[in-house]
């Protein structure tokens, strides 16, 4: 573990950067890489961004402030990547053993890089990049702000999760002061749904069943629904939070049929229920609020088993 | 119009306050009244809150920091009330002509009070109360913070609307620094839906129709749906934002059957479309992003007329 000013000194001493984002890229890894890339370019350095997966259309605006460059990289920086397993291919083969610097906020960071700065108290890696740019002497501008705001708002669910700190709000204040279009970013990240998503959501809501005195709600997503709505992986975003949103529901369960067979269970829980303890019974895991596991059985059997486990858990707590 | 320090001096000079919230009370009017009431009580003054309508269960926690008192009021303060028409009964008869001080952020404030402080740049009246409490010498605590945070997050749609300023975030930072449960407040304000709401949403989504090359989406809500789901006025929250959420939709229209006959139209628009210009054709009005009107006709005819007007509007803009 190095300190953040050491990370800044390292970046100032080096050039020809390739900045890596994790696979299935999200707002924080792309916000971090685009902000750092622009920051380094503003310092007159050469920098480019690489990701093993395609960047979704909704993230394209993040690249408006980045100048595309092509060169042979000398310095490898990974942002928001906890583990080389998240590099995906081809990045894992190309850079897995060659990361010079990693900047991250995941407590699970494996320390795979030659030097790492990991701050688990940061709500988003973009919070760290905000500080890092200041240490690099890069002045905030509307492009940097749009990137950093995107990472912060997406990793906090729009300032709603428990990882938000006073600092998160103070950084957001500085970012919107540049005039970046925060309402537009929030709208496109949170309030825009594809027609396929809308249609899938409607069908999923049709499957809602309640049990344990309405404290448990369960929905299912079948391959047929996915096929018929034309939903992609992106369209699945937010589906698993539907059952937990119902008033009085403590455990929301989404049972999703996998293309390769079996069922993926996503469990969302309200305090005092710990979702990961319920999923652990099926060999799964996660966080207290959100956890998952996989069951090799029929849809009806999968629903019945998980509901029974959740119900037994609630009974233990006298709920 | 007085200055905010004059409002503070007025409050410091007076006692026995009744603080009025508007009818159909929301998070900002209740956050403002509970914070101001607690603030005045902390100064050793007598203060109580009155509202013409019942306070919804989800707002009860706002009153945890307020001591219930009963006395004959001497000083009448209205918070977040733009017009005496929003007092409702019995408050209008009791206090309509007797308001000593009004604190508000609505540009449409009619100036009905003996003295008014109106700041339209404040995203929420709670932003003004935050400053006012400081001028009164009241120290922030977790109860005040929960009230003020509630008003700010609800009036900004969870920090998503265009009314959010750097100041909004900076105030939020100070509020969460007290340790108030901002994630819990956001969850109960935004991520919790009654079963009736969930069921209504499902049925409304079943009525979605697209036109004008998918740039217009229209849904309907009938009295039968409301009856069969047991939905209340509270359960209607957010329903009109459903059609506009669909990707590429510029105009989202909700046609809602009224109990007294006819149809209430809620129109939500994305830039560059101005929703209020479309509604003006039917004698309605509102803001660029959200507007409404009423039509005395059948459901099919109402949908057809509004869709035709929206389509003509889009054509004019070459959209």
Task: Please specify the SSE layout and strand pairing.
2 copies of one chain form a homodimer.
Chain A: H1 4-13, E1 17-21, H2 27-42, E2 47-51, E3 75-79, H3 91-95, E4 101-104, E5 115-118, H4 125-136, H5 142-155, H6 166-177, H7 182-190, H8 195-206, E6 209-211, E7 216-221, H9 223-229, E8 251-257, E9 263-269, H10 275-280, E10 285-286, E11 290-295, H11 299-316
Parallel strand pairs in A: 1-2, 1-3, 3-4, 4-5, 7-8
Antiparallel strand pairs in A: 6-7, 8-9, 9-11, 10-11
Helix pairs in contact in A: 1-4, 2-4, 2-5, 4-5, 5-6, 5-7
Structure description:
The structure is a homodimer of 319-residue chains. In chain A, helix 1 packs across helix 4 (125-136) and helix 4 runs antiparallel to helix 5. With 319 residues, chain A is α/β, with parallel strands linked by helices. In chain A, strand 6 (209-211) and strand 7 (216-221) form a beta hairpin. Chain A is built from 11 helices and 11 strands. In chain A, 38% of the residues lie in helices and 17% in strands. The longest helix of chain A has 18 residues, at 299-316. In chain A, the strands form 2 sheets. Chain A has a 6-stranded mixed sheet with strand order 6-7-8-9-11-10, with helices on both faces. In chain A, strands 2-1-3-4-5 form a 5-stranded parallel sheet, with helices on one face. Chain A folds into 2 domains: 4-190, Alpha-Beta Complex (inorganic pyrophosphatase (n-terminal core)), CATH 3.90.1640; 195-316, Diaminopimelate Epimerase, Chain A, domain 1 (Roll), CATH 3.10.310.
């Amino acid at each position: 573990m190095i300190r953040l000013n050491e990370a800044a000194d390292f970046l100032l001493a080096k050039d020809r950067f390739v900045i890596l984002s994790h696979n299935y890229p999200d707002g924080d890894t792309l916000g971090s890489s685009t902000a750092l890339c622009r920051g380094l370019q503003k310092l007159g350095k050469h920098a480019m961004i690489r990701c093993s997966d395609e960047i979704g259309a909704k993230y394209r605006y993040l690249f408006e402030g980045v100048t595309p460059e092509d060169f042979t990289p000398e310095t490898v920086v990974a942002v928001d990547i906890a583990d080389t397993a998240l590099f995906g291919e081809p990045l894992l083969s190309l850079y897995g053993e060659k990361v010079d610097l990693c900047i991250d906020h995941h407590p699970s960071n494996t320390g795979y890089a030659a030097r790492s700065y990991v701050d688990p108290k940061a709500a988003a890696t973009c919070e760290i990049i905000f500080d890092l740019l200041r240490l690099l002497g890069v002045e905030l501008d509307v492009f940097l702000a749009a990137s950093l705001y995107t990472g912060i708002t997406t990793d906090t669910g729009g300032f709603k999760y428990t990882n938000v700190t006073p600092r998160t709000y103070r950084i957001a204040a500085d970012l919107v002061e540049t005039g970046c279009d925060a309402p537009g970013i929030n709208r496109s990240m949170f309030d825009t749904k594809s027609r396929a998503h809308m249609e899938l959501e409607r069908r999923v809501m049709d499957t809602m069943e309640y049990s344990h005195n309405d404290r448990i709600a369960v929905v299912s997503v079948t391959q047929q629904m996915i096929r018929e709505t034309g939903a992609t992986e992106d369209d699945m975003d937010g589906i698993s939070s539907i059952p937990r949103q119902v008033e009085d529901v403590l455990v929301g369960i989404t049972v999703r049929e996998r293309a390769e067979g079996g069922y993926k269970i996503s469990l969302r829980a309200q305090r005092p229920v710990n979702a990961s303890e319920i999923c652990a019974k099926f060999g799964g895991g996660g966080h207290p609020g959100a956890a998952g596991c996989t069951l090799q059985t029929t849809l009806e059997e999968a629903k019945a088993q998980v509901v029974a486990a959740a119900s037994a858990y609630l009974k233990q707590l006298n709920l």
